[in-house]
From TrEMBL:
Main location group: cytoplasm
Pfam families in alphabetical order: BTB_3 (PF16017)
Keyword set includes Cytoplasm: yes
Keyword terms of this UniProt record: Cytoplasm
GO cellular component, as recorded: cytoplasm
Gene3D superfamilies: Potassium Channel Kv1.1, Chain A
Keyword Cytoplasm assigned: yes
Residue span(s) of domain BTBD10/KCTD20 BTB/POZ: 1-78
Stretches of the chain forming a coiled coil according to its record: none
GO biological process terms held by the UniProt record: positive regulation of phosphorylation
Subcellular location: Cytoplasm
Descriptive protein name: BTBD10/KCTD20 BTB/POZ domain-containing protein
Length: 126
């Protein structure tokens, strides 16, 4: 990854001789994520953006879930985890409900298919 003999060397030192792994990942977030490789858990201190931490975990192929992330801002963590649930739910609706209708329209020779979703769901506890 850092050696000059690599065919696809995607890293290089900056003007200070430091290697930049990924543009856009702050040193604070990267330092926080490094703890994962020691302990298996990321303890997110106050002041770290949970979406930035999420992006970094995605980039470094670290599972972003309640087993790996510990933080004080529980609301932000639950918001990110809720996004995962919403994406999975939308994928289900797309594959099971929307896509078959669109394919049916295409098989009839239609060039356009407009689908309007008028319902919402509430996921309550209990």
């Amino acid at each position: 990854m850092f050696g000059p003999g690599r065919e696809y060397n995607f890293t290089g030192p900056n003007e200070k001789g430091e290697y930049e792994i990924a543009e856009g990942i702050s040193a604070t977030v990267f330092r926080t994520v490094l703890d994962y490789y020691k302990t298996g858990i990321i303890n997110c201190p106050d002041g770290i953006s949970i979406p930035d931490l999420r992006d970094t975990c995605d980039y470094l192929c670290i599972n972003f879930d309640f087993n790996t992330i510990r933080c004080q801002d529980l609301s932000a963590l639950l918001h990110e985890l809720s996004n995962d649930g919403a994406h999975k739910q939308f994928d289900h609706y797309l594959e099971e409900l929307i896509l078959p209708i669109m394919v049916g329209c295409a098989k009839k020779g239609e060039r356009e298919c407009h689908i309007v979703v008028l319902t919402g769901r509430f996921c309550g506890l209990g």
